[in-house]
User: What shape does this take?
Amino acid sequence: MILGVTASGKSTLAFELSKTLNAEIISVDSMKVYRRMDIGTAKPPLEKRNQIPYHLIDVVEPSEAFSVDRFLDMTEQATVDIQGRGKPVVAVGGTAMYIKALLYGLFDGPGTDEAIRNRLQQSAEETGLGPLHQQLTKVDPIAAERIHPNDQKRIVRALEVYELTGQPISSFQKQWEDAYPADDWLVIGLRRPKEIESQRINLRIKRMMEAGLLDEVSALLAEDTPLSKQAAAAIGYAEMIAHLNGEMDLEETVERIKINTRRFAKSQRTWFKTFPDVNWIDVTEDDTVESVLERSLNIIEHSHE
Assistant: This one.
């Protein structure tokens, strides 16, 4: 398993590692599952996907919802398929909830209450997610830091748990803190200085715009079936949708995408700090793809000793 924040270089490492090991890749990303959402989700180019088999990319329509349970089921199927052909599996991604569920299992949280959930969802539709995220910050600052302000599903769930139990959802998730990865996963993490990560994020968004992100979102909105709430809330897409609805100009939209992506990276860092037994590689400006690959191969080799 290779993890890291957005634009950390984990996808490049996964590709090079898979070529070296003759492995196949499982994507651990809640947005790369959507077809035709290519630029804004930073999917690997077809050139790479023609060289190495990728799994869990382009598996559902943008109009569909996608859950962590479905992800786990599809990952299990892909793993059996890959290993059945005698190949290693390289999983890579930055969706912390999916990674944590895959490595440590899903925690047993409290039940649900449809009345509370419906009221919170209605509030989100009427006033936007801002007030709900602020409310979550007051009752559960740990969860609020981990949950992106655009993530309606998880904001609503966290507030629902608090109303149901009087306890923050983060307190129920503490059982994960002492967990260790399943025996069949070796976890490698990539880290860079925050200022370098921010520069890489800004450059990635610049390239996305040059590649036609605006046209991609326009085409998705023109389809017969509307985007699911989950797909429409994806960073890059939510802001472009707001722009196309006349809510802000393009320059402001691009800046908003940068800000929200940096916030997301901060949320990822917060999550990953709770992950035990990660073999972290601190990547410097002097590191090349080859040097990071070599360090990763050393970690893998020593894990077998």
User: Anything to note?
Assistant: The chain has a mean pLDDT of 91. The two ends are 19 Å apart (CA to CA). Strands lie at 2-3, 24-28, 54-55, 89-93, 188-191, 279-282. Residues 11 and 92 are 7 Å apart (CA to CA).
